[in-house]
Model the fold of this input.
Amino acid sequence: MRREQEFIDDLYVRVDRLRGATETAVEDALAQGSTPMQARLERDITVAERSGLLAALNAVDGSLCFGRIDTSSGTAHHIGRLGLRADDAERTPVLVDWRAPVARPFYLATGHTPMGLRRRRHIGTDGRRVTELHDEILDLADTERTGHEDPTGDAVLLSALNSARTGRMSDIVQTIQADQDRIIRAPHRGVLVVEGGPGTGKTAVALHRAAYLLYEHRELLARRAVLIVGPNPAFLGYIGEVLPALGETGVLLATVGELFPGVRATAVDGPRAAAVKGGLAMAEALARAVADRQALPDPVLTIAHDREVLLLDDGLVRVARERTRAAKLPHNAAREHFEGYILNTLTDMVAERIGTDPFDGTNLLDPSDLTQIRDELADNPEVWSAIDRLWPVLTPQRLVADFLAAPEDHLSAEDADAVRRPVTRAWTPADVPLLDEAAELLGEDDRVVRARAERERAAQVSYAQGVLDMSYASRTYEFEDKEEGDPESSEVLSAHDIIDAERFAERQEEDDHRSAAERAAADRTWAFGHIVVDEAQELSPMAWRLLMRRSPTRAMTLVGDPAQTAEEGGVGSWSDILEPYVGDRWEHTRLGVNYRTPAEIMDLAAAVVRAQDPAFEPPESVRSTGERPWIRRVASGELSGAVGKAVAELTPSEGRLAVIAPRGLHRSLAARLPGVTAGAEPDLTHTVVLLDPRQAKGLEFDAVLVVEPGHYGTSDLYVALTRATQRLGILHTGDLPAGLSTT
Ligand SMILES: Nc1ncnc2c1ncn2[C@@H]1O[C@H](COP(=O)(O)OP(=O)(O)OP(=O)(O)O)[C@@H](O)[C@H]1O
Done:
């Protein structure tokens, strides 16, 4: 113990020194103030890199080193949350990053396959103080004993599983199990599906896999960023501290509803509307809605031009439309072609009228006359309003809002009734994949993009010019008595000539120091380096289309549990989802041990699913507590009071309690539970949290009280029953659902 403490003290001396040097480097760089452009760029890069290192050092402070392996050949390695090297010429490793290959036996070695290890040591710390050691002897021929032997080898794991919950998920880097480690370190390319029942560590594994990939493919993933998709904001808040605690910040956490920049989905759909919006048929329906906006005159459009009237009939427009469509461009991108065809058609009409020789019918106009006619037509606002009616430039928001306001043209009457809504209503998460689909169908009119880029550039140039003028002005007073042509005066000007305004503007573009994750969040067409999807069973086919667009290389990790599918539009089977994108080229792997729910609670939850599916096999719980969950029936007028009493009974002295109840009861229950947190995004760090079963997805608590289980569907109930790490109580007024009643 003393020697480990000395080692750890030494580590912190190094870390503190490193931190001090890094802080000084950042301060020095920032103190450079307004330096020449190149130096400023370098300064900003230094600041960004060093700040990242500083954040990582601060994040791991207090839990830097957690393990040690001793090999049969006599070497030893300490394992930690990040790697540290000595200052010597060889840069000797002092602490090995848990993700490095050298650290792997720490997670995989067994007495059966010791992987060259003699001993594995878990080091428990409280801040910088070593509090406990747990040794596993892996080489049975080794007779040396330390007095810290852990005969079963699972004391550290069990203590982690039994510890009080905080409302925030913590990392499992000290106790990653062998089957989890294999998934975490699986190759980055391709689609990996990780399936497993409640509490099998799917979320934990997914997050550690992201950290591993960022370590292993740092260069690629720092540039392209990693996206982690979760089912709702509360869940993202729950898992949000795991990666920073592992020193990784270059990750974007988002729900699908947050993946259309500029749109906030604040409304909610009913289950039926969400299911219809999530169905693949929506892609075709939206494509038809776009085609419908490429209109034909009914029967003619009149355009007043040059004291004449031009008639655009449906035959002429149909030809222009077919030719435009033949280019197979998205709607807005194709508009330029359509404009060209219409202008040509109108030019021909005018030319024929004014240029035809009345005697022999030949056209007397030369090409320059035709150009002039075309230019005059292009100056006529009536021509443009006709084009706008026939091929309007559309935004995704406009298209989807119009579509949902009158869906009957493209959906069955039943589906249309389910999704119809006023144009002005706020967006829902299920609308976001529709907006994304619409953006793909519409594309962008390149000219608009080019013009916008040009405008931005012009603005930057004029800003830069302004800056230069100001700095010039601020200097000229020293030289104001200099004559033009004076050598000193030209020296001043030459200083400004080094960078002209345009180059200054370019520098500013390069100067975009947002992290890749920040830039990705603002860019709908960003291609992520890797995408991790948690609760992947919940995503609709339309949501998959959106995500696949963000992952052209198909480097993805999908974790989920079909038995916990709540959304009507959710997954049927993994192959159904993946087949259109990767055929059968995807890997499937399972996690079968439940680390969260004790056996007593799991037995009860499994009985609920078995009542529907007798062949159902739940994951095996790694521990049992000896405490059976309880079920109590109360009279309906006494439910709130009974909940109050049960909360008092179940609230842990340390840790968290969730009351999971149907939404309709929340108001009355919240009134009876002082200090409870509830609502759309409840603060999970509160001691008592009131949730509906959908909100409970993916979360965990020391104790859970399930209210009115008969009101939930099977999968929602299964989720609710499997959230507790220690104790479960159930209160009901009516009949119990099948499965619960028989236990
Ligand atoms: N190797 C491990 N060491 C310590 N704790 C672990 C380990 N694996 C999983 N856990 C813990 O088990 C609990 C359940 O893990 P997690 O939430 O990742 O499971 P899940 O499979 O995503 O569950 P669900 O499907 O119910 O959301 C968490 O508290 C997690 O920290």
Summary: Residues 157, 160-161, 172, 175-177, 180, 196, 198-204, 561, 564, 595-596, 698, 700, 722 surround adenosine-5'-triphosphate (CB under 6 Å). The first strand starts at residue 65 and ends at 71.
